[in-house]
Write a structure and sequence with these properties.
mainly alpha; Cytochrome-c3 Hydrogenase, chain B; three-stranded antiparallel beta sheet; 16 helices; 12% strand
């Protein structure tokens, strides 16, 4: 009798499915995660997307090439300049036009400022994800300085519509370069302060080192690009591997993960690559300002964009990785088809692969280290 009671009192444990999001603050947007767990240990994650879907690609089939630019702004709303730049490069490739050098240099200056602003959000929110509040307030403060520059440039702080196919909307305003140099002089010491506060913090290292390790071959197979792949030691940056614009004219390094705080390709490596990239962006901006030529920024701006029938694929190294725009033209002023490759989509796809066996609290750190933007994923 006692044995029977003992048998009945045994509690069977099984897999439990938890929902995280789409309103959870640590999902970095309207992302829903179906997390399969055995107790606190995660066995599988199913990312469910589409909550921010805006039919961007289908919408492009009803807009002229020029009218699409404000909508590319909204794809990656933390790096809007990169989206505009990537789309404009693809259209210019389709038109087969050559831009004035001044336009190319201005675009590089603006794009690298945007990279710094985007990485500041990535680094700050990543610290917030693992419980460090102060770095977030610091990085948002410094990002505001970049947004002040963008506001002086085009009047907007988030969605810019500044880089157009064939050029830019207008030339740099007075004292913009002086203000940019002032920002860089201020910002360099701030990276050192951030390192002292967060990068070498014992608690931060324990939460991120050896957590969510992404082996190089797995990252490549999943199509992961950008800092998330370079954190695994893979030396792939389109600015070096497939140079565009005037990037070949600049001397800069491509930071790679080295596993100095743990295993190569862990969450700490992905974080630290972004920190180092901000230094390299500052280096590129200084060189671009020194080399900036004179010229008319509207010299190659077409009055109406009407490319010949054909198709083109353009690639661009955004803050999150390899952005691609595939455009099919039928000879009209409206594209027949526009398809966008989202690096954040591919980066998110590897989440379950690198999260298996970790605890629920670690999933927040792993997801944060991938630096996703849902506007780009859902588009």
């Amino acid at each position: 009798m006692e044995e029977q009671l003992l048998d009945k009192s045994v509690i069977e444990t099984g897999e439990m499915v938890l929902n995280m999001g789409p309103q959870h603050p640590s999902t970095h947007g309207v992302l829903r995660l179906k997390i399969h767990t055995d107790g606190e240990v995660v066995s599988k994650i199913e990312p469910i997307i589409g909550y921010l879907h805006r039919c961007f690609e289908k919408h492009c089939e009803k807009l002229s090439y020029e009218q699409i630019v404000p909508f590319t702004d909204r794809c990656d709303y933390l790096a809007s300049m990169h989206m505009d730049h990537a789309y404009s490069l693809a259209v210019e490739k389709l038109l087969d036009i050559e831009l004035p050098e001044r336009v190319e240099y201005i675009r590089v200056i603006i794009s690298e400022l945007q990279r710094i602003a985007s990485h500041l959000v990535a680094v700050g929110t990543f610290g917030l994800d693992v419980g460090a509040i102060t770095p977030f307030t610091w990085t948002i403060r410094d990002r505001e300085r970049v947004l002040d520059l963008f506001e002086a440039l085009c009047g907007a702080r988030l969605l810019y519509n500044y880089i157009w196919p064939g050029g830019v909307s207008h030339d740099l305003p007075p004292k913009f370069l002086e203000r940019t140099i002032e920002f860089l002089e201020y910002f360099d010491p701030q990276i050192d302060e951030l390192n002292n506060l967060l990068t070498t913090n014992k608690i931060f290292i324990e939460r991120t080192a050896d957590v969510g390790v992404l082996p190089p071959e797995v990252g490549i197979n999943y199509g992961v690009t950008g800092p998330s792949l370079r954190g695994s030691g893979v030396n792939f940056d389109l600015r070096k591997n497939e140079p565009y614009s005037v990037y070949p004219n600049f001397d800069f390094d491509v930071p790679l993960g080295e596993g100095i705080m743990g295993t190569l390709g862990d969450s700490w490596d992905r974080y630290y690559v972004r920190v180092l990239e901000m230094r390299e962006s500052a280096k590129i901006i200084r060189q671009a300002i020194e080399q900036l030529p004179d010229g008319d920024v509207h010299a190659a701006l077409p009055k109406k964009v009407r490319p010949n029938a054909g198709e083109v694929y353009g690639r661009y190294e955004s803050a999150r990785g390899d952005v691609g725009f595939y455009i099919i033209s039928n000879g009209k002023n409206i594209p027949l088809r526009v398809k966008m490759r989202s690096p954040a989509f591919c980066n998110l796809s590897v989440l379950s692969e690198i999260s298996e066996g970790w605890m629920i609290s670690d999933i927040i750190a792993i997801l944060g280290s991938l630096d996703i933007v849902l506007g780009e994923i859902d588009r």
